[in-house]
Structures are given as C-alpha cells and as structure tokens.
Amino acid sequence: MPELPEVEIVCRNLNKILGRNSRVKSWLFFRQDLRFKIPQKQLLQLRGQKIQSLSRRAKYLIFYFEEMALISHLGMTGEWRTENSGFDRKSANYRKHDHVCLQLEGGVCLVYHDPRRFGFLQIVSKKQLPAYFAEFGVEPLDSGVDFGALTEKFKGLKGPIKSALMNQKLLVGVGNIYASEALYRAGIYPFKSSAQLSRESYGRLWGEVRGLLTEAIKKGGSTIENYRNAFGEAGEFQKGFYVYGRQGEECRKCHTPIKSRVLSGRSTFWCPSCQKK
Ligand SMILES: [Zn+2]
Asked: From the CA of 257, how far away is ligand 1's center (Å)?
C-alpha cells in the first residue's frame, strides 16, 4: 500500500506533468465502482476548468479547481499514469483495471489504474476541505511540527508503539512498512507500550521517521507488489529495508535473524537484538 513517500512522489510527478497544460478537456469512465462510486456527474462539471494546484495531505492527493477539489486516494494498488491523446478503451495503451481517464486540453491524459479498487475519487468544495481533514494528525515532514506535544499525546495512549505510529489521527502517512523500519532505526521494540517509552526514545523516533521518509522519497519510494510512480517507474527503497519482509534473514547490523509477528492483522518485523524489550 502506498504510504507517504509514494503518494508524495506521485504528487510531484503529476505537478510536473500538469505544468502548463492543466485545463480539463473531458473525462472517460471505464467502470464506476472503486471503493466509492466514481462521481461522474461532478467530474464532468469540471470540464473547461483549470487545475489550479495539486498537493498531498496524508496519503491523499488533492487537485484544486475554482471552487471544488478532487480528492484521490490510491488505496492498495492505485496508480496515475500519463497517456497521449487518443487514449480510449480501444487504444493499444489501454490496460485492464484502467478506471478513469482525465483528458487535458494540451493532449495529455492522466489515467487512473487500480486492480484492487480500494482507491477512490471524491469531489468536495474547497470550503469543506478543513472539515474533511479535521481528524488527521500532523504531517511528519512539515517544518513546524511540535514533536514535544506529539510525544505527550503518544505517552497518553494505551497499546504498542507500532500501532500508535500507524494511527493517522496523530501522525499521518506512516503505514505498516515505514512503522517497522522507523522503529528498527530508532532501536525500539515494536510491542513496547507507547505510555512507557521514554521521551528520549521518542526524540530519536521522530528523527528517524523524518529521515526515513525523506530518504524513501529520494529513492523513489518502495515497490512491494506493484507501486509505480506517474512515469511508470518502480521504487528502489525496498532494496534497503532493514526488517520489513525479512523474517528469518540476518539483521544487517548484528546478524541476528529478523523476527515477525502479526499485530492488529499486520505483520510486524523487528530484530530481537537491536530492538530489545
Ligand atoms: Zn540487529
């Protein structure tokens, strides 16, 4: 599932692609049922409008129009890619699991592809955006984050630190992969209680989260199953994972076999020697 780095990369790619040709010519719809029904009527009403800007919040892409905003969530396997004008169901470039095509006036088409269809598109008015994202936590890469306040919130929680790290109401963008990797880098046992973790450990953790996400963006993100950026390129960052997906393999630092256990339905990976209870 794309996490913050992967969505950030797609956002940067799309911003490059949109460049000067960001006026919507039309839309093509190939099927209606993503996680939510595609708002075809509302999307068609955006014809002739310019995409004023595109940004990311948490794992969501937000396309800003005059009064409305299009929110795109990639779910498990969503991808945006470019095709040239002439793209339709009969074109040689059409692929199974292409669901929506945004045709821009300059001739470029942005195609949304999603085999598992957990992603979605939603239209909200720009005024509704603050309410839409009201329950979301802080952006780990923002410059003004009060990590001291965040630590106190985490210390007030019950349950393991890894679950807290993935709680999007406190901190956004960190999912199963980057939570395991960040905890390894900070030398923290994933099942340790959030309340019992020291402030010093939290300080280390926030530094590692920021470093990890920044590094992952530079390396093009992580491709586990099928993540591709908007230019169709896979990420490289998964090649350097310390723990994720490496159960039974040697720790890169101490050669102890990496362990794995399911926590809240998700596999958690750690080194029993570098991340002591
Ligand atoms: Zn180790």
From this structure: 8
One of 59, 81, 162, 185 is an active-site residue; which one?
59
What is the whole-number distance in angstroms between the Cα of residue 275 and the centre of ligand 1? Answer: 7
The vertex-142 CA angle with 203 and 162, nearest 5°, equals 45
- Given the structure tokens 């362990």, which residue do they identify? 259
Residues of the chain with pLDDT under 70: none
pLDDT tens digits along 214-265: 999 999 999 988 899 999 999 999 999 999 999 999 999 999 999 999 998 8
Rounded to the nearest angstrom, the gap between the alpha carbon of residue 46 and the centroid of all alpha carbons in its chain is 25
